[in-house]
Design goal:
By secondary structure, the chain is an alpha+beta fold. It has two helices and six strands. It is 20% helix and 38% strand. The protein has a four-stranded antiparallel sheet. Strands 4-5 form a two-stranded antiparallel ribbon.
Length: 96
């Protein structure tokens, strides 16, 4: 599910849902996206005003394949925490 070239998908976990109550939302974004383009895409797609964008580069996870070898399952990815203007919300729901 790719929303745009910048925003890949919203991250819906218990922790990110609790952040949503404070006006912050979490997205998986393209590794090469700067903060300005992330803010522009969120405001364009969801029609909200972005106040602040924080980005985090998340390391890939390794899994054991056999007794000695390890294989990287998920490669390096980038997470963005977006703060909205007071009183604005984004409806991010999990579709079953």
């Amino acid at each position: 599910m790719r929303i745009s070239n910048v925003i890949i998908k919203p991250i819906v976990t218990e922790k990110s849902t609790n952040l949503g109550q404070t006006g912050r939302y979490v997205f998986e974004v393209n590794k090469n996206s700067p903060k300005g383009s992330i803010a522009n895409e969120v405001s364009r797609i969801y029609g909200v005003d972005v106040v602040e964008v924080r980005t985090i580069r998340m390391p890939g996870k390794q899994r054991r394949v056999s007794r000695t070898s390890r294989k990287t399952v998920k490669t390096l990815w980038k997470k963005a925490i977006v703060k909205l203007k007071e009183g604005q919300t984004i409806d991010i729901t999990v579709k079953s």
